[in-house]
Amino acid sequence: MKIVLQIFKIVLIALLLYSVIIILRHPHKAYYKTNDAYIYSNGNASDSDRSEIMKQLHAFQDGYSKRDTAQLKPFMEQLFSQENILVLGTMPQEILIGVEKVSKLVLSDWKSWGDCTFLMDNAHISTAGNVAWISTIGYVKFDMSRFLILPLRLSAVMVRENPVWKFQYMQFQFDLDFTFLLFTLVVLMIWLPVSLLVLTVMIVKRVRLSIKSEAQLPCVGDSQE
């Protein structure tokens, strides 16, 4: 029985490690070295619209590459609409509405998040009138650990404002696959009550053995007689 339990523990640890590896892998890494492949298709934007939007996308990447906080104000003025802005960050609480809050997020990213690289040349760009929507991928190399690099998705909505394309909605998202983690969690949920049951049985056996041993000990008075 002990050998079976040890084997099960080893298998469980292996599953946990494998799930971490699966989660942290870059699902679209093959696209990182090319600028002529479109993971989400290239979209329906005309050549002229695509060219103008690409200028803004590269300016966005340039800002996130240089991370020059002194250029934050012109960066925001050049790239973001001043009305009805919504940006969603990678964390659940990062819901930023308005220029001021979005500026604080960008400033925080530049100061302490990491080096972001987005595949702007590979972006899906579609338009309908004065509205455009964009999707692409990328990755972030964290400042806190240069060995931690996670894949990203970037999606956005842009509006044409006399006649410059500017961001009005944007979402940063970690491009991670948690499918295998769900399986691991199910295994853990099964393993936990089983472990508690085994522990309870072991405790009961030890208590019974202790009581039995005490009952078999001779009394002090009996030994003197």
Q: What name does the CATH topology of one domain carry?
A: Nuclear Transport Factor 2, Chain: A
Q: Approximately how much helix is present in the residues?
A: 40-55%
Seen as an oligomer or otherwise, the chain set is: single chain
Give the helix tally.
6
CATH class of one domain: Alpha Beta
Poorly predicted ranges (pLDDT <50, ≥5 residues)? none
From N to C, what is the helix and strand string? HHHEEHEEEEEHH
What gyration radius follows from the Cα positions, in whole Å?
29 Å
Q: What is the gist of this entry?
A:
Residues 75-171 form the SnoaL-like domain. By secondary structure, this protein is of the alpha+beta class.
List keywords for this structure.
225 residues, Nuclear Transport Factor 2, Chain: A, 7-stranded mixed sheet, 7 strands, elongated
Describe this structure in words.
By secondary structure, this protein is an alpha+beta fold. Strands 1, 2, 3, 4, 5, 6 and 7 form a seven-stranded mixed beta sheet that branches. The protein contains six helices and seven strands; from the N terminus they run H-H-H-E-E-H-E-E-E-E-E-H-H. Helix 1 packs antiparallel against helix 5 and helix 2 packs antiparallel against helix 3. The two termini are 46 Å apart. The protein has a domain of 148 residues: Roll (Nuclear Transport Factor 2, Chain: A), CATH 3.10.450. Helix content is 48%, strand content 23%. The radius of gyration is 29 Å and the shape is elongated. A hairpin with a 6-residue loop joins strand 5 and strand 6. Keywords: Membrane, Transmembrane, Transmembrane helix. Pfam families: SnoaL_3 (PF13474). InterPro entries: NTF2-like_dom_sf (IPR032710), SnoaL-like (IPR037401).
